[in-house]
Protein: Chloride channel protein
Organism: Panthera leo
Amino acid sequence: MESEQLFHRGYYRNSYNSITSASSDEELLDGVGVIMDFQTSEDDNLLDGDTAVGTHYTMTNGGSINSSTHLLDLLDEPIPGVGTYDDFHTIDWVREKCKDRERHRRINSKKKESAWEMTKSLYDAWSGWLVVTLTGLASGALAGLIDIAADWMTDLKEGICLSALWYNHEQCCWGSNETTFEERDKCPQWKTWAELIIGQAEGPGSYIMNYIMYIFWALSFAFLAVSLVKVFAPYACGSGIPEIKTILSGFIIRGYLGKWTLMIKTITLVLAVASGLSLGKEGPLVHVACCCGNIFSYLFPKYSTNEAKKREVLSAASAAGVSVAFGAPIGGVLFSLEEVSYYFPLKTLWRSFFAALVAAFVLRSINPFGNSRLVLFYVEYHTPWYLFELFPFILLGVFGGLWGAFFIRANIAWCRRRKSTKFGKYPVLEVIVVAAITAVIAFPNPYTRLNTSELIKELFTDCGPLESSSLCDYRNDMNASKIVDDIPDRPAGLGVYSAIWQLCLALIFKIIMTVFTFGIKVPSGLFIPSMAIGAIAGRIVGIAVEQLAYFHHDWFIFKEWCEVGADCITPGLYAMVGAAACLGGVTRMTVSLVVIVFELTGGLEYIVPLMAAVMTSKWVGDAFGREGIYEAHIRLNGYPFLDAKEEFTHTTLAADVMRPRRNDPPLAVLTQDNMTVDDIENMINETSYNGFPVIMSKESQRLVGFALRRDLTIAIESARKKQEGIVGSSRVCFAQHTPSLPAESPRPLKLRSILDMSPFTVTDHTPMEIVVDIFRKLGLRQCLVTHNGRLLGIITKKDILRHMAQTANQDPASIMFN
C-alpha cells in the first residue's frame, strides 16, 4: 500500500495490510470434522469481535440510526499487520468493503497520471474476470482428470485390458471385432482377474477369485486414500460443502483451500470413488474448485489482500464446481446463490455464470465419458407425462422427504458418537471396516457392484430396442417388422421381476451404508448416493405403475391415456424424479436442484413433475426438522454460522443476551489515556478475549472505540522495535491529543490509528429480532450495548447462536464449542 495518509469515516486506511493466508497444512487440525474449542472465556474470546468499520450506528428505541465521523491523528505511522485475522476467526465484512472502496478510489484518482497507472487500473478492473477464467479452466481440467481416472480404477477391481493398460473396460472392447450384441462388454482383450490368475473365465473358482480380488482392490484404494488424507492433508476429507458455506460466511480456516488440500483431495477422491464406497465425487468437486479459486486469487492483489473480495471468487468457484460435477452451468450458479453463498452481489452472479461456462466448456472439450456429454447419465425421454402420474411423483417426493429426515438424524447421531467415543480416534480402521463391509455385500448384487454413476445411468435409461439390461426383459409381442422407436408398454418378464428384487436389496444396502459412509476421513460426496437411492425407489415405482397401467388399462385413471399398444409410462422418468426428491430431502435445495436435474436430462417438459416432487420432499423433510445435512454438520462441528434461513421470533432484548451478565466479572475495558504499556500487556496476558472496548474513564464509561487484541499486540511489538523511549511505563494514548505529562515521564505510545472509532452499537432495549437481522445482513462479528452512551456490555455472534439454541430448547454445549 502507498505510504500516504489515508482516512475515511474514522479509519486510518493504511493500517490494513492483510496477512497471507496460504499457510501450510502443518497448521491443520485433524480432519474436516475438526472439533473447535471456542469456549475459553466469559466473552467467548470475542471470536466474532472485530467491529464494523465506517459509520457509527446507534440503534435507539425508535429504531433511528445516527452517524458521526471522526478524523484521525495524521501523524501516526502505519503499522504492518494491523487489521489482519487469526486462524478460526471471523472477518469484518464492513471493514473489508471499506478497504476495497478506498483501494478503488485511490486507483481511479491516479489512473490519469501516466500510462503505467492507466495500465494498472485496467489490470485491476479485469482481474476479477481473469481469476474466474483461470478457476473455470482449472476446475474443468481437474474434473475431467478425476472422471477418467475414477472410471479406469473402478474397472481395475474387475480386470485389466491387456492390449492397452490405460483403457477401462468399455474402451478396451471398442475396437474389438469379436463382441456380440448381447455380450457387448466381453472381448478377448479384457481379462478378468480370475482369467489371469487361475485361467478360468467361468465356474465357482472364477467367481471366488474375482470376489477376492474385488475386495482386495477396494480395501487397497480405501486404505491409500485415508492414509494420504491423514498424513498430508487432514482437511481433504469429507464433502467440503459445510466448511465452504462457513468460509463464505466470513470464517477463516487457514489451509482448508490450500495447495496441499487441493492436490491430496484430487488424488484421494479418485481412490475413494474407485473403492466402491457409498459416496460420490460431486460435493468434493465444489471443494476442489474453491481450492483453485483461492489459489488463483493470490495472483491478484485486489483479492489476496481482501478477505471479502476473495469470497466473491469462492462463490464463483463453487458454481464452477457444480457445473463440472453435473454438467449443469445454470444449476451451478443457482446452487452457489441458493445453497452456499452468504454474500452474493450482482457482479458475482455474472462472474459465477462465466466461471461455470468456462468450466463446462473445458470438461466438454476433454469429453471424459466418450459420449459428447458432460455427465455419464445424460438421458432423453420422448414420451410426455400424464396428469394422473402426479400422484406417484408426489409419493416419491414423500419418500425423498422421509429419507432425508431419517438420513440427517441417523448420520448426525453416528457422527456425534464418532466424536465422543474411542472409535473416532481410529479413522483408518473405520474406513477399512466400512470399505470391507461394502465390498463384501456389494459384489454378489450386480446393481451394487456397479459404479454408482453407472447404476444411476442404467436406472434413468428408458427401455429401447437396443437395451440388453435385465430391467428391460419384457415379454415382447411386437411384430419384427414394426417400427421400434416407440415401444408400447409390455408385460414384465422374469428378468424384470428378478431385477426388482435385486433393486430392493440394493436400496436397503445403499440406505444403511450411506449413513455410515458420509463423514468418514476420505473425500465423500452425498449427491450421487442420494440420487442412487431415489433412482432405485423411482424405478421400482415406475415399473409398478407401468404394469398396473398395462393390466388395468380400462381403469378410469388410465382409460384416457393408456390404450392397448400405447407407450404410456416411462419408468426411467420415475427414477429421475425419485433421484431429485431424495437429493432434495437431504439437502433441502429446491430451485437449483430442479434446474440441475433438467439440465441433466435435457428436457424442459418434465419440470412440473420435478418441481412437485422436490417441493413435496422439502415440505415433508421440514416437518421433521428445517436443517439440511450441511447445516446440521455445520452445527455439529461448532462453526459460528448464522443461517439466513432460520427465523428468530422470540421477544427478548439485547440486555438479555449481552455479556457480562449478573454474577459475571466486569467487562475488560481499556481507558483512552491513563493506562501504561504494562497495564495493557498484563490485560492481554491475563485474558483470552479477542478485543477490548475503549472508554473515556472508568467513572464515565463513555464509549470511545474498540481495539483488537491482535492489533494491540502487533502495535506494541512494532513500537518497541521502531520507536525509541517506549518502555513498560509508557502511557498509551488512544485520544486525538496526547495529555500533558511530567517532564521525566517516558515517551507516550499513540495507538489511535488501530482504534475502531465507530464500533457498531445498539441500546440495551433493542429487540433481539433486530439484532439478529443486523448480524446476518451486515456480517457483524460483535456489537457493543450501551445505555445513554454508557457502555453496558457486548454481544458476539456466538452469544446469538447460543441464545437461539436456548430459545429452541437445545443445549448450546451440544451444538457448539465441542
